[in-house]
């Protein structure tokens, strides 16, 4: 009898037994008790170690504050100024003595206190004569209030009682400053005594931001713990969360467990050496019980894990199978929107990979066909533009030479000579190979043309040009405006008996909520009936309209307003981008 290989079902059953049943028996009955004791002990040790670091950091800032309160002792001129103020002889002193004392208190001492830690907010110095000096580390805008009862404050009285030793002040409002809103700080106060007579001469108070304590606590203590800091008298200095008064009483009793918000908490405490502040961390007992409870439910988790694992494997395989097809669909959507740069990533050499390769080849061929078609369309459009522009050049030259004939008949040879020279320069500009120029360059062309006509007709014809600076770089088809000006001269002015004015104005306007370039060519000549324009010989106007349709398809408008005897106004409107001028994509 041939040996039969184990079925997949049998293999799964063995795997289930090894990975689920045996671990459940061990975890459910042996590990919970041991694990509970272990995590409780380790958590308390870890919390105790954390509190050591926390108290050290708090001690550091308290030491910094205490050091600030001793700074006046390091400067004899400051001590001398405080001494004469506290002795009441400042006002009777001579000008030099006053200057020396004021310089020490208003310049020397603030300069020493300038480079404090950013958490040390400021230092308040109160000489016994009632004067007030405050140095703010944040700015020079905050000042101490002159109407504040300083000597009635607990911290002031405690500093006097301490007789020169540092007094640590818990969290209190900084209401002695002219600041809104009032900020909470913790401080160190000290009575300053004369080095010689040992008499009190001032009280100094250095403030630190409570953010220091909060930041230290947040960095070192977990979120579910509560940190409470109390002073030597059991008064609250800081708490990371609101603590009821009943809980504070239990902390003062130094019980090993306290009740906080109806739940039991274990407390671990450390004392800050210099201030005798007590730092207590309250750890919820639910942290331990929850972990034990998790141990009991691990069996159920492992049991359901087999089903989840099976489902995961199925989903992973189906995803591996379907992902290439989804990728192909996404690529085809990009192709449908005109993006021919996307390709299918090929993995492996199976049938799906072959299908992806075929799709990539099809996209490449389709891209080549579109590019070739686009290039052919551009060449056709360029040919049409060249044909239209070739109509303009001989038409313009014919009309200009006709003007030269008139000058010759009048025997105005000097003017004719200047006109021929101007035409030579203008033709060099017009006959260049560029098909697309800026609006500023087009204005230069029509200005040269206007000079030629002004030589010919002198005072009977005048021109006015106005170009918005924002439109100087707007690109348009070459010789777009010149035929319109030429039509105004030939068909509007020449048949007219009175002097004429031809205006060319280009400006930026907001029409129907969109930003547009508006170009107007206007004359006060004989005018005509616009409905007859299609049957007339005005090649220039039809040419301009057709060139606009080719160059600025969908973003331009060409409008003619005219009436017999009332002149003609031709308006060209081109859409612009909102984010900036000019729009470089209007041409070509």
What can you tell me about this protein's structure?
The chain is of the alpha+beta class and 588 residues long. The chain has helices at 8-29, 31-69, 76-86, 95-112, 154-162, 211-220, 245-252, 286-336, 351-409, 413-430, 439-457, 482-493, 539-551, and strands at 120-127, 133-136, 167-173, 184-193, 200-209, 226-230, 236-239, 257-260, 263-271, 278-284, 436-438, 461-467, 475-477, 500-511, 514-523, 556-562, 568-575. It has 13 helices and 17 strands. A hairpin with a 2-residue loop joins β14 (500-511) and β15 (514-523). α1 runs antiparallel to α8, α9 packs antiparallel against α10 and α9 packs antiparallel against α13. The radius of gyration is 47 Å and the shape is elongated. It starts with 7 loop residues before the first helix and ends in a 13-residue tail after the last strand. InterPro entries: Bact_2-comp_sensor_kinase (IPR050640), dCache_1 (IPR033479), HAMP_dom (IPR003660), HATPase_C_sf (IPR036890), Sig_transdc_His_kin_internal (IPR010559). It comes from Paenibacillus azoreducens. GO terms for molecular function: phosphorelay sensor kinase activity.
């Amino acid at each position: 009898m041939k040996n039969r290989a184990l079925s997949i079902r049998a293999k799964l059953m063995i795997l289930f037994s090894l990975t689920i049943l045996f671990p459940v028996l061990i975890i459910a009955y042996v590990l919970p008790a041991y694990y509970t004791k272990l995590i409780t002990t380790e958590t308390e040790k870890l919390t105790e170690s954390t509190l050591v670091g926390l108290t050290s950091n708090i001690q550091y800032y308290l030491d910094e504050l205490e050091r600030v309160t001793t700074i006046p002792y390091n400067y004899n001129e400051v001590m001398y100024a405080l001494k004469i103020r506290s002795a009441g002889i400042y006002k009777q002193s001579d000008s030099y003595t006053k200057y020396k004392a004021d310089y020490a208190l208003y310049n020397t001492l603030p300069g020493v206190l300038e480079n404090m830690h950013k958490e040390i907010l400021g230092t308040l110095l109160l000489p016994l004569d009632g004067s007030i000096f405050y140095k703010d580390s944040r700015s020079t805008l905050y000042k101490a209030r002159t109407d504040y009862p300083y000597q009635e404050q607990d911290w002031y009285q405690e500093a006097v009682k301490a007789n020169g030793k540092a007094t640590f002040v818990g969290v209190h409002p900084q209401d002695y400053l002219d600041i809104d809103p009032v900020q909470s700080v913790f401080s160190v106060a000290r009575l300053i005594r004369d080095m010689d007579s040992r008499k009190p001469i001032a009280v100094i108070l250095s403030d630190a931001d409570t953010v220091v304590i909060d930041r230290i606590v947040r960095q070192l203590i977990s979120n579910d713990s509560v940190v409470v800091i109390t002073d030597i008298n059991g008064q609250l200095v800081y708490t990371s969360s609101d603590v009821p008064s009943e809980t504070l009483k239990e902390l003062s009793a130094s019980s090993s467990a306290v009740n906080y918000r109806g739940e039991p908490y274990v407390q671990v405490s450390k004392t800050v050496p210099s201030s005798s502040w007590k730092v207590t961390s309250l750890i919820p007992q639910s942290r331990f019980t929850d972990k034990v409870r998790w141990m009991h439910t691990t069996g159920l988790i492992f049991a359901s894990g087999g089903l989840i694992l099976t489902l995961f494997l199925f989903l992973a395989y189906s995803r591996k199978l379907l992902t290439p097809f989804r990728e192909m669909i996404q690529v085809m959507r990009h192709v449908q929107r005109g993006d021919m740069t996307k390709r299918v990533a090929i993995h492996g050499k199976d049938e799906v990979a072959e299908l992806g390769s075929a799709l990539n080849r099809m996209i490449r061929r389709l891209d080549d066909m579109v590019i070739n078609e686009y290039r052919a369309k551009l060449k056709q459009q360029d040919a049409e533009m060249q044909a239209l522009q070739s109509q303009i050049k001989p038409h313009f030259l014919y009309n200009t030479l006709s003007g030269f004939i008139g000058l010759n008949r009048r025997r105005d040879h000097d003017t004719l000579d200047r006109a021929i020279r101007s035409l030579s320069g203008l033709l060099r500009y017009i006959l260049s190979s560029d098909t697309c120029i800026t609006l500023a360059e087009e204005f230069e062309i029509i200005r040269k043309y206007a000079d030629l006509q002004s030589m010919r007709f002198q005072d009977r014809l005048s021109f006015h040009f106005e170009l918005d600076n924002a439109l100087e770089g707007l690109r348009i088809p070459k010789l777009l405006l010149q035929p319109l000006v030429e039509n105004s001269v030939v068909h509007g002015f020449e048949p007219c008996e009175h002097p004429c004015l031809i205006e060319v104005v280009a400006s930026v306007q907001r029409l129907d909520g969109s930003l547009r370039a508006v170009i107007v060519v206007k004359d006060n000549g004989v005018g005509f009936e616009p409905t007859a324009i299609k049957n007339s010989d005005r090649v220039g106007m039809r040419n301009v309209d057709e060139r606009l349709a080719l160059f600025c398809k969908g973003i331009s408008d060409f409008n003619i307003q005219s009436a017999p005897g009332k002149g003609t106004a031709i308006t060209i409107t081109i859409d612009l981008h909102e984010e900036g001028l000019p729009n470089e994509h209007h041409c070509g």
